[in-house]
């Protein structure tokens, strides 16, 4: 008899990755869920003896799903598959009843021993049957969101270790912006008195800028978090912060793309998009990915990744998207 499993992730790209990582010939039926509420409904309907669960999701995140499974005593074995690899997150999900934690992007060689240890495989003789297509369509923005989600998790993990605090993560937002829109955004950020720093990167046909926005009136908190000397103006501490976040973020992104990036030096932004002359390629739209990290008492750092139109074309080609896909 086929084993019913649920794959729960707000990213169709991530759901597809998990479906592809399932052992060949494992006799299962697969139900796909885009959020925690859908996953719980599927489990209650008897379609989820095993649950593959993301953590950072809208409506109901993975932690809340695990709490609900415990509170309702639902019959499922949760396996967390997440880009949030902070030690505290791992410890928390295991305490809430997850039987394993696997970092994104999922690797079939990591999944197999987990399934074998719980005797879940049986005889590998049948192809999986899906109640929704495991090869569902996903769009280019969904791909970019998942790439950013994994990279953000790497950055948060490094930052959490540096400041000895858990980092709350946002769901990445992906959009296209005209150079004029970018200029307006940057000018507005600088005019509010916030501190805006940037760092360029390039490699393997990809080029762009990473930006970090920190409230200027909270620089003392940045100093305290990074362990900088008391009495500093906070600029040095913020440069330390950008090196942690952007270095880890770009490394996480590069690993997924099988690339290596060279990085420029962080600089302070004092104006609009004229600060980034290489980004506006003939007025072409830029890809903007926004993420945020919240540390301690609501100290929020906004991070933007800006990719050129050529970089976007390179990503589309690598992942088999058409120009309109």
Structural features, described:
It is a single chain. By secondary structure, the protein is an alpha/beta fold. It has helices spanning 12-21, 36-44, 62-72, 87-95, 108-117, 140-163, 179-191, 219-226, 235-257, 309-318; strands at 3-8, 28-33, 50-53, 77-82, 100-103, 129-130, 167-169, 173-177, 195-203, 206-214, 262-263, 267-268, 286-295, 299-307. Strands 7, 8, 9, 10, 11, 12, 13 and 14 form an 8-stranded antiparallel β-sheet that branches. Strands 5-4-3-1-2-6 form a 6-stranded parallel β-sheet, with helices on both faces. The relative contact order is 0.13. Residues 128-135 have low confidence and may be disordered.
Structure summary:
The chain is of the alpha/beta class and 325 residues long. 39% of the residues lie in helices and 24% in strands.
